[in-house]
Amino acid sequence: MDDKILNFINKMHLLSLAVIDEENLPHCASSFYAFDEQNLALLVAGDTKTKHIKALDKNNTVAGTIVLDTKIVGKIEGLQFIAKMSKATKSQREIYFKKYFYALAMDPQIWSIELRWVKFTSNTLGFGKKLIWNK
User: Fold this and answer.
1) Strand, coil or helix: what is 125?
2) What is the pLDDT along the chain (135 residues), one digit of tens a residue?
3) Where do the domains of the chain lie, and which CATH numbers do they carry?
């Protein structure tokens, strides 16, 4: 994965996640994430009772975005992704709780969003410049 994409993922902390629910309807959720750079996976907490986690039983392919909140056109950056989502490994849980240590008190289930495709747009690289990555 291009270093520009890795740097962007590492400096951000909030993603938007899209799933298809049990009734074949789209559903979105926002979540704080930690990044497992070795496995190119975004790590999020999620309760098994939530709609977006229940949807994984039917289809664990997810999509999402990570964006920089700015009104300055020359600084616009963001990425879109397609991924597979599953329960995080023990080492991935450690990565998540290292970043969000206060979440340990709730002992949430941690999920791994393993990136398969990423499109990164950054106007800092030139207006509308896009970088595409595939696993």
Assistant:
1) helix
2) 999 999 999 999 999 999 999 899 999 999 999 999 999 999 999 999 999 999 999 999 999 999 999 999 999 999 999 999 999 999 999 999 999 999 988 889 999 999 999 999 999 888 888 999 999
3) 3-134 (2.30.110.10)
